[in-house]
Amino acid sequence: MIDICVGHTAHAVYCIWVINLNEMEPDIITNRTKDLTADEKDKLEEQNKRLVPEFKANKLEIDAQRHWDLFYKRNETRFFKDRHWTTREFQELLADQASAATGPQEKRTLLEVGCGVGNLVFPLLEEQIKEETNAGFYFYACDFSPRAVEFVRSNSLYDTKHITAFQCDITSEQVHEHIAPESLDVCTMIFVLSAIHPDKFKAVIANLAKLLKPGGLVLFRDYGLYDMAQLRFKPGHKIAENLYMRQDGTRSYYFAEQELAQLFNDSDFEVISNNYVHRRTLNLKEGIDVPRIFLQGKFRKRIKSQ
Ligand SMILES: C[S@@+](CC[C@H](N)C(=O)[O-])C[C@H]1O[C@@H](n2cnc3c(N)ncnc32)[C@H](O)[C@@H]1O
């Protein structure tokens, strides 16, 4: 089971290896990121020797949608793996959990932000259809890239009885043209906020706060501070603290736990859980050790009277 990017230029070598790996140590869930070795500290220091020039960083922001759309033009539906782990990590995504909250006939509503080609929503929808349950979710799925949305719409499971996909920039007001305020039970954001410039994080979280019912949940997983991929960036790729440019023009940010908690706290959410997930995949035969650090959290929109 793999839940990291497969084939990104910045970590291409690792990604090819991961496919063949066979020994996964149990995840370590902690509120600490890794202690850097002297060598890793040097690598991070090296990155500061040549930053992405300001004009180029600004251009990356202007062209952000184009870069993601080209990414899907190149990779089509081949890049990300179906995310079958989501119900293990977030039990709120199980169909029976969903019905427990609203009653057996009423479907809950879920928005997958930055859905890509649907690797999170389709496994959930498939399960729901297999179980022939009336419970579960009505899914909304949005992405910046029109091509990604087209891939979602052309999936054989796509049916507006169950799912609506639309293109939008989640940092803008566009999402409110598609979804009514305070109508959602759950928002999922899986490796998406890291693709957005940190100056816009607040606007994204404020949008989610507007869309969710009081008590609604954000389920979050993304790159954690000092993840292997962050340490591997060479000089010329760093844009700002913990923000990097990949070879293909897309960007990735590496989140500190407290910073993420603060972001949600400031925007009317309480933190239910928020931890680093340290994952180590070993292949002794090949001599490969792939340590990854993700940040995973659940945040609940405050209920005003509380
Ligand atoms: C690393 S991919 C993850 C895709 C998907 N969530 C998954 O896990 O397979 C990041 C996604 O975020 C989308 N994205 C980037 N900026 C966005 C924005 N401002 N609004 C909506 N989606 C955005 C990209 O188009 C891309 O599909």
TrEMBL record:
GO molecular function: tRNA (cytidine-3-)-methyltransferase activity
EC number in record: 2.1.1.-
GO cellular-component term (any): cytoplasm
Alphabetized UniProt keyword annotations: Cytoplasm, Methyltransferase, Nucleus, Transferase, tRNA processing
Broad class of enzyme this protein falls into: transferase
Pfam (any one): Methyltransf_23
Cellular compartment(s): Cytoplasm; Nucleus
GO biological process: tRNA methylation
Reaction(s) the record says it catalyses: cytidine(32) in tRNA(Ser) + S-adenosyl-L-methionine = N(3)-methylcytidine(32) in tRNA(Ser) + S-adenosyl-L-homocysteine + H(+)
Gene3D superfamilies found in the cross-reference section: Vaccinia Virus protein VP39
Oligomeric and partner information: Monomer. Interacts with SARS1/SerRS; interaction is mediated via tRNA(Ser) and is required for N(3)-methylcytidine methylation.
Biological role stated in the UniProt entry: S-adenosyl-L-methionine-dependent methyltransferase that mediates N(3)-methylcytidine modification of residue 32 of the tRNA anticodon loop of tRNA(Ser), including tRNA(Ser)(UGA) and tRNA(Ser)(GCU). Interaction with SARS1/SerRS is required for N(3)-methylcytidine methylation.
Family statement: Belongs to the methyltransferase superfamily. METL family.
Protein name (record): tRNA N(3)-methylcytidine methyltransferase
